[in-house]
């Protein structure tokens, strides 16, 4: 089952050692993330905020983490020692619009969560997530609703002991999960009310609490993030977690990297062009692969990047079941049930008894083949030899096209994570990194280690 509790983490650096800046390392936050969370079959965790702080060597360290379930988090403090912020997700956006809201109950008490990380790690709560926008729309609409919403958020984080809040509105102004049901023309008012909404929350929680926002990595989601509105948004927030993943989603017509060095850099520059201070930015990373069914009549053999895909969503904007995600976490590689009935008309293979470490060592990823049975997805795993993975050195992305199943795969490797740290985090003097999600990493935390190495290898300016 999919759980609303998720986690992500961020790594940042600051220009001085006096007051650290926080950031988010990664949500599925979509996770947050466009459409991939629709097909998750297991609970997962994510880390949103980690920051690079100056050290004696002038290098950085992981500052932040965010997650929604403790089930798949690292078990050793040695693994999380460098993480400075933890963001638990999600509280529903509709909880804060009444005069007497019910008390939010996190999946684990804040004081217990603090024990999972090193001394000084900040613990935050994320509100919203992919597909959860109605509460934000209602709360932001006028001055009275904004004050009520902000007051309730402040009461919640103070009562439960959180150090801050992450607003994960996907997306103000439209083009979110409900874009076919509620056209953008009915959400234009949110472009003006979004910065006012953040201002109200900042005023209510005060300067000592942390306020972060998750923002789209795909330009089509940046409806409310314009040259006029940007300068009104940024002063209220401590950090901006750019979801520079899911850059290919089910609304696309041709294959592309869902995350790459080039596209991530272009996204960062788009925010810098609307006056966002780069030291407030946390670059997002994804701890999962995405897959898309390609058109069998397209020329994917000769052109796997840019070849046509089948319809990835239905006419009403819902998931067509022709795309999805696969994480690297241990539970993903659990043995398939012996009584699983598989259609004879689909190419299907199973991995039995392999843990993620073995899969990662042999294949660098696993492939999912989906079939429709009673409108449900039957998910099976098939191995893909590592030699089949292709590196797009120019764009800075990893991909594989399965010519037997007509599936295009796209994912981030540890090598690409390090390259992004060098070319983007250091090159653009960003505040840090974030990822969705910590609990979706491999058994040996290859992606987290790559982020830690990348952050520590970047000199603070």
From TrEMBL:
UniProt KW Hydrolase keyword: yes
Endpoints of the signal sequence: none
Region (Disordered): 1-24
Amino acid composition bias (Basic and acidic residues), ranges on this chain: 1-11
Coiled-coil regions, chain positions: none
Gene Ontology biological process terms, A to Z: chitin catabolic process; polysaccharide catabolic process
SUPFAM superfamilies for this protein: (Trans)glycosidases (SSF51445)
One Pfam family matching this protein: Glyco_hydro_18
Molecular function GO labels: chitin binding; endochitinase activity
Protein name, per record: chitinase
Organism whose genome encodes this protein: Aspergillus tanneri
């Amino acid at each position: 089952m999919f759980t609303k509790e998720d986690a992500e983490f961020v790594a940042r650096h600051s220009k001085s050692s006096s007051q650290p800046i926080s950031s988010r390392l990664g949500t599925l936050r979509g996770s947050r993330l466009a459409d991939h969370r629709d097909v998750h079959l297991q609970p997962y965790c994510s880390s949103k905020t980690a920051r690079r702080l100056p050290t004696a060597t002038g290098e950085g360290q992981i500052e932040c983490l965010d997650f929604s379930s403790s089930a798949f988090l690292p078990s050793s403090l040695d693994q999380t020692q460098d993480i400075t912020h933890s963001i638990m997700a999600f509280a529903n956006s509709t909880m804060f619009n009444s005069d007497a809201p019910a008390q939010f109950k996190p999946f684990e008490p804040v004081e217990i969560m603090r024990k999972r990380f090193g001394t000084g790690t900040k613990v935050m709560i994320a509100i919203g997530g992919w597909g959860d926008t109605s509460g934000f729309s209602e709360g932001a609409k006028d001055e009275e609703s904004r004050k009520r919403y902000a007051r309730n958020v402040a009461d919640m984080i103070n009562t439960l002991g959180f150090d801050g809040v992450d607003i994960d509105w996907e997306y103000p102004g439209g083009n979110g999960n409900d874009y076919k049901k509620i056209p953008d023309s009915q959400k234009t008012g949110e472009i003006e009310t979004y910065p006012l909404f953040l201002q109200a929350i900042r005023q209510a929680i005060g300067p000592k609490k942390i306020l972060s926002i998750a923002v789209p990595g795909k330009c089509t989601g940046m409806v409310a993030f314009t040259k006029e509105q940007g300068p009104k948004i940024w002063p209220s927030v401590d950090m901006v977690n750019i979801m520079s993943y899911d850059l290919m989603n089910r609304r696309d017509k041709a294959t592309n990297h869902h995350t790459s060095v080039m596209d991530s850099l272009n996204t960062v520059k788009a925010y810098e062009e609307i006056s966002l201070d780069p030291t407030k930015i946390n670059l997002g990373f994804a701890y999962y692969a995405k897959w898309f069914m390609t058109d069998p009549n397209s020329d994917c053999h000769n052109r796997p990047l840019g070849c046509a895909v089948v319809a990835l969503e239905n006419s009403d904007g819902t998931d067509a079941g022709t795309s999805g995600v696969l994480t690297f976490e241990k539970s993903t590689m659990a043995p398939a049930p012996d009584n699983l009935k598989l259609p004879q008309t689909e190419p299907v293979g199973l991995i039995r008894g392999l843990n993620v470490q073995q899969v990662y060592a042999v294949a660098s990823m696993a492939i999912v083949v989906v079939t429709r049975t009673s409108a449900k997805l039957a998910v099976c795993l098939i191995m893909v030899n590592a030699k089949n993975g292709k590196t797009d050195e120019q764009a800075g992305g990893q991909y594989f096209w399965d010519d037997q199943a007509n599936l295009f795969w796209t994912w981030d490797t540890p090598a690409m994570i390090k390259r992004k740290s060098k070319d983007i985090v250091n090159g653009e003097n960003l505040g840090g990194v974030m990822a969705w999600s910590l609990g979706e990493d491999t058994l040996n935390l290859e992606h987290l280690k790559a982020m830690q190495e990348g952050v520590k290898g970047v000199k603070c300016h």
